[in-house]
Structure prediction request, 336 residues.
Amino acid sequence: MNTARALCCVKCRVRKNVARQSVLPMNIFMTGGSSVVGQPTLRLLAARGHRVTALTRAETRAQSLRDAGATPCIGDLFDQDFIRAATRGADSVLHLATASPQKASFGGNAWALHDRLCSEGTRNLLSALQEQPLHSFVIQSDAFLYGDTRGAWKHEDDPLPRKLARQRQATVEMERSALADYHAYETPVVILRGASLYGPTAPSTRALLQALQQRRMPILGSGNQYWHWLYVDDMARACVIAAEHPAPGEIFNVADDWAFHAADGLNYIAAQLNAPAPFKMTTSLARVFMGDAAKFLAQSARYRTDKIKKMLGWAPKYPTYREGLAEILRTMGKRV
Prediction:
């Protein structure tokens, strides 16, 4: 074994060992505390003894943040002076704010707030933290940046498509801004590219289950396209591990251990719901009735997660969608 490879192995072992050690309680500033990922992340951070200040623009969301163990901070991510004051004294920052459209409408201004959170919101946080010592800065990103890989596995160092979908461009800008600050100011940025998130509180999951129960969710084309999912609690665990034991300047894919064929998954989920088997539809016809959502559902991609497992010691509690589905149906009081 050559010296470079030996050093790499030592570093991996050290990081794996470090990830198992406890850390002192930190002061953590979080955006997106009310989100699908933010809520389980808050609960886990509080359970581990961290003091979390969670940003929200709406007083109506303050109580849900308190219930999850955080101190609400009412303010605006787009107010640079406010953010500079709000983050002062933070040991770690978790930027989990998202604003993806709830409906499959990719046109118009549907993604305007999402774009602004990724661009202006991220820049405000980075600017506020440039002069401040920080243990970690965790950013929630998106594995859909890889686009339709036609079933090929994607690693973190694989190049992104030259032509990105409109709704992914701001996310790429967010990643680039964060990594630029890492190189310029040594901001301890860690980027987590999450796979398709699902869970009992995720609107997309509830919509899928309802559509299958009502036989409104078709299998597109052959149904052999690969879908790769991630239970929201497992994404929350990745956020917490990255905050406590960061690997500055690194990007990590976060996904479960089983990419599955869409047809197999939809048939299995329908059976667990005691619903009729989903019908089949050509992709071209689906585009007529479903618009851009059909293009999204027809994508095929798989994501390698060796890096986050080796470097941060993370592993999914729900290694396949079947374990996650059982938990969802138990939580929602449905028959498994």
Observations:
- Residues 249 and 286 are 41 Å apart (CA to CA).
- The longest strand covers residues 136-142.
- The chain is about 45% helix and 15% strand.
- The chain has a mean pLDDT of 90.
